[in-house]
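Comment on the following before class.
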Amino acid sequence: MNKRIGLAFLTYPVNEDRMSYLTRALIEAATHITASQDELICFCSCEYAAENFAKRSDSDKLPPIDVLKPYAKTKKRIKRLCRAFRVQLRWNSWPPSMGANENNAMQIAFDELHCDYMMLHIDDCYATEPIDLSEGIAFLEENPDVDILRYHWSPRKECKPIMTELGAWQQVDPQSKWFYDDSPHVRRSDYVAKFGRHYKGRPIDCGRTESETNRVLRARGARIVATSHRMFEKDGPVSASR
């Protein structure tokens, strides 16, 4: 098969806790995530781009200085961390927001690295068991109508999606409150063509980005399938906005 899979770590390194989240995510990914039949290309899309803010000529404005300061403190550490794990480090060239960082990751994976699929791996999730992404890719190749394959979802009653068994997988009901969220999942290279780019809100406007993505995916008839059980866990409650 030999498909190209981009493993995209999305990070928001504004405090020590967020740095520890990314560190654990990289350690557990190196330990647990493989692609036995495919090519796995790892990169980190980091929400620090102070140099780029000054160069932009459109309507995007600089965020408050207290938002930018923490990034400067962690920039060198991010570089060292990614180098240690042999992960390509790429900066998000838009003002910080979840949607902008997801768009940046897709541009890197699909436009620059020419990947067939991308796993979106946000920094505050970590793998808890061996994950061979080639198994999921084989399923997606056999089921071209499936747009997203989820590997994690919230276990909380108010957030857990409605799912029905689908052989070794689970079909996610589009009427679920959180049909989609930003936890680890694989998407196809035609995502932008079918569903467009993500909403870019104010810095770290997570809820608005996810709500808008859910609306678009439902309206355009996306099909989302999940693994039989959660294969990642969340690493604490610290917000990316502090």
Remarks:
- Helices lie at 16-32, 50-55, 65-84, 98-112, 133-142, 191-195, 206-219.
- Residues 49-67 have pLDDT under 50 and may be disordered.
- The first helix runs from residue 16 to 32.
- The chain is about 35% helix and 25% strand.
